[in-house]
Amino acid sequence: MSELVTGEAVALELRPARLPSRALAVLLDLVVAVAVYVAVTIAIVVSTASLDEAAQTALSIATFVLVLVGGPIAVETLSHGRSLGKVACGLRVVRDDGGPIRFRHALVRGLIGVIEILMTFGVVACIASFVSARGRRLGDVFAGTLVVRERIPVARTGFVPPPPPWLAGRFSGLDLSAVPDGLWLAVRQYLTRMQQLDPQVGWSMAERLASDLAGRTGVPVPQGVPPAAYLAAVVHERQSREARRAFGSGPGSSTPSAAGAPPAAEAGPAAHAASVAETPAAAGTTSAVYGPPVVPPGAAAVESPGGARPEESHEVPTGDRPGTGFVPPA
């Protein structure tokens, strides 16, 4: 990985191409150039058979220069550093600052390439690439260019990690109508890439985004909640609302299996603490992403009225009530 800094003080991380991929790209370009040169030479010899030997020699030299020297220069200039071999290998020639090359860069590379590739059969180019820290040959050094890889493994992005279980449903009462789409996009991009950022930089970005989001909603960030966890919880709440609107299930609707259960948003901190205890794997995953979980105030277990335990609240059917066959525990 090579880190380059542009004139706008933007750090670019480029992957310089190494010798094997560059050699394969040059070999493909040479095969195509030689095939074109042979075809053009045959056509010229057939069409200029009536000329004298000096004219034929001049045409042969002109064909060599135009096809084997001018051809690669023209191709790299028009394609901004992507010849046929480089396209096949996923490479591109760029300037030292990461920008596209121009005619002067391609001209210097092509002229020096005749000496270090064609005349020495690539020996000088291989030695220069081995010595250079970024795998540059002499043509790249004098032209101020660099061959980089375009097709690189891309990390999985686009997945927003779920919020910690103890924050599920905690922000169900927030008014999210004043949050612009640009802020939502910035928050989502941060959440999908926060594992790739420096910890200090990621923490400062999370604090800034959480402050902006809290200013739009009118409710400050709760004490003890990490900013990244707050952002994930609010984004999860927005996605839940959009899902309810899309599937037509309003706040008052309930499924038959959960007809007697309270909604997740009304269950209170005790239910969230119980969900953490029931799903240790999920809690460990979110803790690794957002840091150690912070137990919110009032998350202690809530006892039933009168101090009775849940198993003691059942009554034995007596009198005229029909028996159900249920025997309470001793």
Looking at how many chains there are and whether they match, the oligomeric state comes to single chain
Helix content: 40-55%
Terminal residue distance? 69 Å
Report the sheet with the most strands, covering strand number, pairing sense and barrel closure: 2 strands, antiparallel
Computed over alpha carbons, the radius of gyration is 35 Å
Strand share of the residues? 5-15%
Spatial shape: elongated
Overall pLDDT score: 74
The main sheet orders its strands as 1-2
Q: Provide the domain count.
A: 2
Structural class: mainly alpha
The helix count comes to 11
Count of beta strands? 4
Order of helices and strands: EEHHHEHHHEHHHHH
Unreliable runs, pLDDT <50, ≥5 residues? 1-12, 250-285, 294-323
